Amino acid sequence: MTADTLQMTPEHFIETAQAIEAEVGKSIVGQAELLRGVLTCVITGGHALLEGVPGLGKTATVRALGEVLDLEFSRIQFTPDLMPSDITGTNIIHEDEEGRRDFRFQSGPVFANLVLADEVNRATPKTQSALLEAMQEKAVTVGNARYPLPEPFFVLATQNPVDMEGTYPLPEAQLDRFLYKLLVPFPNARDLVQILERTTAGLGSATRKVGDAPTVLRMAALARHVPVAEHVLEHAAELVLLTHPENPRAPQIVRRYVRFGASPRGAQALVLGAKVNALLDGRYNASIEDINAVSLPALRHRLIRNYEGESEGITPDQIVQEVTETLTAAAARL
């Protein structure tokens, strides 16, 4: 283990994570599953895609998380006329005191620790490709120069599943770069009443900072050192393989409704998510149950349904759930 890892004990990890969730909970009512998913992505160094109708607290959750962790926060509102340079930055002409001119790079809003890409599917593919480079390489290229992004670096993107007019669906290659796709549910009656009390009577609570960028990096280092037994890795691999329709052992729902299954990044997301899930649950090794617990957010956006699947309204969640249940049942019979 590295020196940074040794500075963060499992007990301190759990204590810090619980403090983060508690502080963000002062600003956000409910949405515990959403917060746990976003926190997992931050800890593992992954990106998250948040999908839900407007007004459910997606933007507020990301902003509150940035404040609690004292991370440099940047929000980019994606629109059809947004250009790549509006994200990455551009070279500008600089004139010194003696009148000499040269080009200097002026960084864009992507140069932050926590980048909120609001309504990411409203930008053109050209602009989305600029964000894709930042997500994958954690650097941007402007002209002939390459500029590294600060560490840690996360993109938390939002999209509205209802208002699709004037949008550009995210390409599969970009979707695959998101560690998790998190669905933001509508609040229940009790949570909605609490939201009304806070927002109409000025009852918002101030949050305190419980971490910073080095804290996040230490948590990430510890999470990656959580041991995973070989049979758990095999379970994750088999789970991904069973999402491929050409696999003769794939369930009927996959062979009938899936065009392309999950990529190897899906297996990586399962294992990384399981490691964090185990730590947050107070355990120091990941289990098959941890893999199953994170299967939906890790795989739902990596499945490409065929025409029949889309026309019959078969959701990716239904497919992932059946694959998980089939594999678990088969393992239990052994």
Topology, element by element:
Elements lengths: L2 H4 L3 H16 L6 H13 L2 E5 L6 H11 L4 E5 L6 H5 E7 L5 E7 L6 E5 L6 H13 L1 E4 L2 E4 L5 E6 L12 H4 L2 E6 L5 H13 L11 H12 L5 H12 L10 H6 E3 L3 H17 L7 H6 L1 H5 L4 E2 L1 H5 L4 H18 L1
Parallel strand pairs: 1-8, 1-9, 2-5, 5-8
Antiparallel strand pairs: 3-4, 6-7, 10-11
Helix pairs in contact: 2-3, 3-12, 10-12
List descriptors.
334 residues; alpha/beta; Rossmann fold; Helicase, Ruva Protein, domain 3; 2 domains; five-stranded parallel sheet; two-stranded antiparallel sheet; 11 strands; 16% strand; globular; disordered N terminus
Describe the structure.
The chain is an alpha/beta fold and 334 residues long. It folds into two domains: 209 residues, P-loop containing nucleotide triphosphate hydrolases (Rossmann fold, 3-Layer(aba) Sandwich), CATH 3.40.50; 108 residues, Helicase, Ruva Protein, domain 3 (Orthogonal Bundle). The chain is 48% helix and 16% strand. The strands form four sheets. Strands 2-5-8-1-9 form a five-stranded parallel β-sheet. Strands 3-4 form a two-stranded antiparallel sheet. The two termini are 36 Å apart. The N terminus is likely disordered.
Whole-number average pLDDT? 86
What kind of sheet is the major sheet? 5 strands, parallel
Helix content: 40-55%
Spatial arrangement of strands, main beta sheet: 2-5-8-1-9
Order of helices and strands: HHHEHEHEEEHEEEHEHHHHEHHHEHH
Count of runs of 4 or more consecutive helical residues = 16
- Any idea what the radius of gyration is? 21 Å
The tally of beta strands, per DSSP, is: 11
Work out the count of structural domains.
Answer: 2
What is the percentage of strand-forming residues? 15-25%
